[in-house]
Amino acid sequence: MAAPMARFLAAGKATATRSTGSVLRRRFASSAGHDDAQEAVKWERITYAGIGVCAVLAMYNLSKGHQHFPDPPPYPYLRIRNKEFPWGPDGLFERKKKHSDDHH
Predict the structure, then answer these.
(1) What residues are paired with 17 via a beta bridge?
(2) What is the per-residue pLDDT for 30?
């Protein structure tokens, strides 16, 4: 099995050299005619411009007011609690009324 592999590698070396003995240089299609440093600078500038545009749009959107909706009517069948929560009478993420210190 080693003999066929050796012949395959020897054939590859023979085709990789020119008649003068110099090794062929492999050229990739992605780097044909492009300078990598210029590409990096271009994309860095595009990134900074995108960050600037996003910051301006965020400031514009945050500076606008937002619509406040009226409170829903207090329907009697909403928020029925048969047993108090371990953390108090309100829901875990809601604080609607100020608790007095007399129950602590």
Answers:
(1) 23
(2) 61
